[in-house]
Amino acid sequence: MDQNDWVITNIDQIKRANTSAINRGYKKSEGSRDDITSGPTVSSTEQAENKQSKRPKNTLLKQQRLPAWQPILTAKTVLPLFFSIGVIFVILGGVLLHFSNIVNEFVYDYTDCNSIDTNTPCSKLVNHTTTCYCEISFQLDEDFEAPVYVYYGLKNFYQNHRRYVKSRDDNQLLGKSYTSLNSECKPYDEQTVDGVKKFIAPCGAIANSLFNDSFEINYTGVANISPAIQINLLRTGIAWNTDKDVKFKNPENNFINTIKPINWKKNVTELDPDDPNNNGFKNEDLIVWMRTAALPNFRKLYRRVDHTKIAFNSSLPKGYYKIKIDYNYPVTSFDGRKMFIISTTTWIGGKNPFLGIAYLVVGSLCIVLGFVFLAIHFRFARNLKSSDDLYQSNMASSSRNNISVIEASESRKYATKIEVLKT
């Protein structure tokens, strides 16, 4: 037998010895496991309790086997998405901006209109107990298509102040009986008159600051020489139906033992005495005011133009108008301003270009970014086919290297064992 055959024979003997040792270890471990399982038995009840208390249920969620999907972001998926979003947003922004621009709107700041009697600005004369009368004239350059709405606007009036917003009693506004009012209404909750305590109805700072200017609009024709035609303004249909039907109800005791708010000039029962369905807490001017604004500059719906008259059945015609104003509401104490607004609406509401501009800006930005990413992709992206070939080549080379390392390691092990056997 030559030396090579002797080496191979010894290697086979070493392999068989290793296999025999492994088998003996496996049998020994099985015997140990048999010894363990043959120990004290556990009742089936205890096993069920342990299994129930420690082992989670075999569900997809608790065993973390829920199916998952993760998108692979590539140029072929991201770039079309950017361009699609950009085009959709630009189109939508253009539509919104178009419908906002076709809204006809007239805004007039009448804060400093002069009194008819003294020719002095009403802002310097009016307080909560007096009324100033002023008149303004204006011209509409085009017809305002029906329906037409009249608004009043306020600037620098913070209806969103925390204490102001909370200063109301919803139970009182719901017409429920009460023996005391919400403490948030203080100091506008009650007054003592002739030694008798009376509740303020409605209580709180919101109701106490109710806007109470009034307007009368007259149309004087295209040449401003025709006899004035008074435009009928509707006092109802200006509040949300949910507010009027759900949140505001008149009490059954007909406001017994109540008194008007401090800054009001008339009782709550005199807001609209001609229409009992629009009087008391159900008065729509009050309901509109009680829905506080989120920003310091806001407008609220005042009236709807009655289009049943022949002269105004389809529109508010272009021409000259005069407005008689009962100036009651002071605003100079907080540096505020008051505005009279006539406006039409579309399916998106009144004139508000912000939403359309926002969509146009975002859409344009997406399109620009799409072109930038497209240029980067063409300039710096590697060929996918060459990348795949390179990956396969690297994998094959790595496999060959790993096999060589394993064979060398095994050879060294066998050589070492042979040297031990020789010695």
TrEMBL record:
Compartments (UniProt record): Membrane
Entry's transmembrane regions: 78-99, 354-376
Chief localization: membrane
Protein name, per record: Cell cycle control 50A
Ranges of compositional bias, category Polar residues: 38-47
Annotated spans, Disordered: 25-56
Membrane topology: Multi-pass membrane protein
Alphabetical UniProt keywords: Membrane, Transmembrane, Transmembrane helix
Assigned protein family: Belongs to the CDC50/LEM3 family.
Compositional bias annotation for Basic and acidic residues: 27-36
